[in-house]
Amino acid sequence: MMNRIWGKTRTILPLLLWILLFVAVWEVGALLVEASKRTPENVLPHIYQIIEAALNPKKVSSGESASQLVLSSAGLTLGRAALGFLVGTICGFVLALIMKISKIVEKVIFPYLMIIQMIPILGMAPIILSITGDINTSRIVIAAILTFYPVATGTLAGFNSVEKSKYDLMHIYAARKIDLYTKVLIPTAIPYIFTGLKIAAPMAITASILVDTLQGDKGLGTLLSQSLKHAMSIYVFWLIVFFSAFVGILSSKLMGNLERIVLPHKRIRVSRAKEESI
Amino acid sequence: MMNTMVRETREVEINIKDVGMTFRDNRGNDVEALTGINLNIYKGEFISLLGPSGCGKTTLLRMVADLLEPTTGSIHIGERLPREVRLDKKLGIVFQSPVLFDWRTVQKNVELPLEVMKFSKSERREIASSMLEMVGLTRFSEHYPNQLSGGMQQRVNIARALAVRPELLLMDEPFSALDEFTKEKLHEDLMQIWAKTNKTVIFVTHNIQEAVFLSDRVCVLSPHPGRLSGIVEVDLPRPREIAVKSSARFNELVLKVRNTFDGGSL
Amino acid sequence: MTDKRVREKTLIQKIAENKRVQSASTFVLPVLFGILLFILWEAGALHVLLNTDTFTLPLPDRIFTIMSDNRDKILSNVGATIAVALIGLLAGSIIGYGIAVFAALFKTWGAAGLSIVAAFNAVPIVALAPVMTNLSKDISDDANTRSMVAKILVVTIVTIANMSFNAFRGLTELKPFAEDLMSSYAANRGVTLWKLRVPNSIPYIFIALRVAVPSSVISALVSEYFAEYIIGVGRQIRENIVLAQYSSAWAYIVTACLIGITMYVILMLIEGIVLKRRVNA
Fold first, then answer.
1. Chain B residues with CB inside 8 Å of C1's CB?
2. Long-range contacts of A163-166 (CB under 8 A, 24+ apart)
3. A130 vs C108: CB contact, 8 Å cut-off?
């Protein structure tokens, strides 16, 4: 029992120390900035100042406090990011499936898939907005395109990782094609899909925020540009920065947790002598 | 070749006639993997295909399993082609590596072929459980494959192959990756299971002792090109125990097998 | 029992399975598809599909005309974007690799620090870019220089997050017993680093670059939106759209795509040359 506690402490301790170090460096920077600027909070405020602003119930704009403002706009932005993420995941998965089923489709599409990775989709956000004309649709489209690539390539990698002996086994059972896909190919691909999802989740969020900045509409991005232009307290800006960073990291971790639920066998440490119950 | 007169009355299950297999390698050259294989396998017998790597023994097995088609000659199982037997789902195969699905429990792995063959849920459960009991792994039925040792995984592999009650059990060097102790234990287990179920077994191996210990007959194959050098009858009484490996007759047979081989050292 | 002959393949099967046809089709099919898309675009079918007009989505020949007419202006913007991307890429890769080396040499402390650095991967660029712009306000009196610094910082941070993680894997995921071998030669940590870990990490560097190169281009483009000085391909896209000059905007979009593709192709060529002699384990 003590061993387990010590073990956990050992892993967390270095992490805590690094976080402390990070905070320390930040504070030093903030002090330097404070000494040389009139409005230091525009450049690099102290951490405690940011925390203070977060907890401050003073109404900043339209009857809401700083924190409330950030959170309510966040809901909007994140909700649409999630929708785009879902659409992209499904499309990516379906495309990979089609590419696996038909060799012709694979050959035609594969280079274009590579090209999608190479072109800066995020940079094309303004034009997608113009084409679709509607900010919500464009948000979903961009998040979908960004999610689509990692999921499609991940799924394909998963399909292609199935060893020949599994194919032979299914052949011996005279299994139908659909059994091959549902019982072998798709389950094998799932860990790979999650790798793709972990990459895609923060990107979908980034895309959603970016689209906000292009056109005023209550999302996080609009709030971001407004506070940068001093339409409201600059602390809102900092809160958004930290919040989006936090959410970005959280979304990735969330995918990891989801994976552990869907794939319980991955959690198991390979220990043959012990009989672990699941 | 030993006299086949005693065996004439037994029923021929598999007829391999004039079978040859030619591959085209990467450079476009023809490689003759097997040539002129003529062999009759009897119902209920345990026969080994023995030889070094490259002698075509796995190729021959895969042709019986309908994973490959011979370039010349024919194979019949009963009156049927391997393809028909496979589509009829009467084949069981045990590969060298366990080929278990990591994301399924041991029980679910054994149920896999039954799912493909559309057995009902309760039937699957029942059959899989009895198979696991036969290989002695009931305690581990809810474990995942990567929690089991290599030997245990192979036992699951065998349980799964037997779950569909195949006419023919094909085994491709199933124990080569295991250590000697585990191997011996599994030999014993396999012999017990075989005695109980009376299936026809084709067993591929490169280990002479293993072949002689387990089989009724040993087919010796030599490479370049793969050909049948001879068949040795193993007349050791059954049931066979590990102790028989130190008997004089056993060693005579091993020597005989060695001498049958004519492609270099075995 | 009938004698089985080798199955006669039908002519179509023979063509389909022919190796030369197969390798040719890998190339030919996508090209045909691309040409089809191009024709659809020029003919206006694409507009019907996307429910848009030739104003918002100009025809290809119009785009090319604009591109060749404004060649100089486009090139100077391209220069600005590429400079940011490349400098950030280089700085980020070097620093990231350095961090990875540190983490590899001091395992327990390093791994935790690395997870913090890798966390930056998940920080949206949109949060990072304005912060950097603000931080660099004092660097110089020239708005252009200030913006360049800010943008380069963004690309650098994003690259560090990526490179450090992958380089760390390269420095530590060694074949079994490789470390034991080195210690049997009584090699100290420095020698092991130089002779074993670093060479082992080279393929991983390329794995990192495959993501880092496109991502440096994207980061450069996005950070241009938040920068003070109006320059750069990404910024030009935005500015032109705001002014409803769609043809020019598209000219820059095509340029951005070309930048992305060219840099990636160059990367693949370099990778091919450097990794050619290595045998894949």
1. 15, 17, 74, 76, 79
2. A163/B99, A165/B95, A165/B97, A165/B99, A166/B99, A166/B101
3. no
3-state DSSP call for residue B91?
strand
* Cβ burial, residue A181 (10 Å; 0-12/13-18/19+): middle
**Could you tell me the pLDDT band of residue C144, with boundaries at 50, 70 and 90?**
confident
Tally of CA atoms within 13 A in the half-sphere of B149 that contains its CB: 13
Which chain B residues contact residue A272 at CB under 8 A?
147-149
Report the neighbours of B using a cutoff of 3 or more CB pairs below 8 angstroms. Answer: A, C
- Kindly list the residues from chain B whose CB atom is less than 8 angstroms away from the CB atom of residue A271: 147
d(CA A127, CA A215): 12
Least confident of A222-226, B221-225, C152-156, C200-204: A222-226
What is the pTM assigned to this prediction?
0.81
Q: Nearest Cα to C1, choosing from A24, B255, B81? A: B81
Residues in chain C with CB shorter than 8 Å from the CB of A110 are 30
Query: Higher confidence at residue C185 or residue B209?
Result: B209
Domains along the sequence of chain A with CATH: 1-44 (no CATH), 58-277 (1.10.3720.10)
Nearest residue on chain B to C7, alpha-carbon basis: B71
In the structure encoding, which two tokens stand for residue A117, read together?
């990775």
B225-262 pLDDT per residue, tens: 888 999 999 999 888 888 888 999 999 999 999 999 87
Q: Which two tokens stand for residue C236?
A: 């030009």
Phi (first) and psi of residue B37, to 5 degrees: -85, 120
* Chains near A (3 or more Cβ pairs under 8 Å): B, C
ipTM (interface predicted TM): 0.85
Q: Across-strand partners of B232?
A: B218
Mean pLDDT of C22-49: 80
Burial (CB < 10 A; 0-12, 13-18, 19+), residue A187, is: middle
Given an 8 Å threshold on Cβ–Cβ distance, is C33 in contact with A108?
yes
